[in-house]
Every structure is written in C-alpha cells, then in structure tokens.
Amino acid sequence: MIPYRVKQVLWALTARPLAESDLDLIDQILTPAEKSLFEQYSTNDQNHAIRVVRLVMSNPQSCVALQKAALLHDVGKVKVGRLSVIDRSVAVALKRLLPKRSKMWGIIDLNQASRFQIPSIVRAQHADWGADMVKAAGGDELTVALIRRHQDKIEPNHDLDEDLLLITLQAADNVS
Predict the structure, then answer these.
(1) pTM of structure
(2) What angle do CA 141, 155, 9 make, to 5 degrees?
(3) Any idea where the domains of the chain sit in the sequence?
(4) Is 2-175 a CATH 1.10.3470 domain?
(5) Is the distance from CB of 148 to CB of 69 less than 8 angstroms?
(6) Which terminal CB of the chain, N or C, has fewer other CB atoms within 10 Å?
C-alpha cells in the first residue's frame, strides 16, 4: 500500500498535459458536455483518468459506459476546487488510522466543514457529486451508476452485468 501511495505522489508531482492521442481518445468517448466536465480536472487527475480508461479498454467487458465512467469517476472532486496532494494523502491516512472520525467527517455538509474536514468530505462524497454532475450533463444511466458506485464494496462472485463492470473499473482505478 505504501509504495502505491508514493507512486501516486510521484505521478501528481510529474503530471504533464495530455498527449494528442489522449485528447483524441477523450473526443471519441465523451460527449461535448461530458468533455467539459473532464476539462475541469487538474492535469494529475486527467492523467489518472487516462490511465484508468486505457486499462478498462483492455478488458473484454469494456463498453462505452464503462469507458465514460473511467474518464469521469472522480469528477465530483472538482466541486471544491483542486485538493493538494497533501490534502488527499491526509484523507487517505485518516481513513486508515482513524476510520470512525473519517467516516463521521465524511458525512458533514460541505458548507458546515472546517478546512481540515474537507478532504474527508470529498473522499466520502465525490462519487455522488460526480454522478449527479454527469447525469446533469446528459450522461447515460449506466455511466452515472458506475460513477456513483465506484467506491462501493462489491461482494465477490456477483453476476450482475453492472457489478462486473464496476469490478473492472475499481481494479483499474486501484492501480492507476
């Protein structure tokens, strides 16, 4: 777990603007309204989304809804502006070290939160925020559902199509 977090920090610190081939891929998958959401990401988050979509595209289960969800699954994080690498690291550490406090802070209304609670709120609520944003941009039901559930724990051996796609999304997200 620690080496992966170090890799995430290095990715954040060395993020570069997307290549032309990445921009072409985004144009092939997202509608203009969805693309406007994608463009709100930081450069680091855009790079993360591209890594996730390329991984899900290599899966035989891949479909357009899954690809859209791969590109937009974290878009709810932009609701509060861009969180620093330190903010994100603190939210992850807090979840592991003080899970009850993290969970308690995660349900606080954003307008009532202190500066230190915001990363936990974003971590806990960004999936719902992102799903609502994509739905408002005209996103299809499956894409919206995958985004809303991308942090849910899935029971092994589920045979529902949506759950199988969700497992694919989560696996790609977890290594990207």
Answers:
(1) 0.88
(2) 80
(3) 2-175
(4) no
(5) no
(6) N
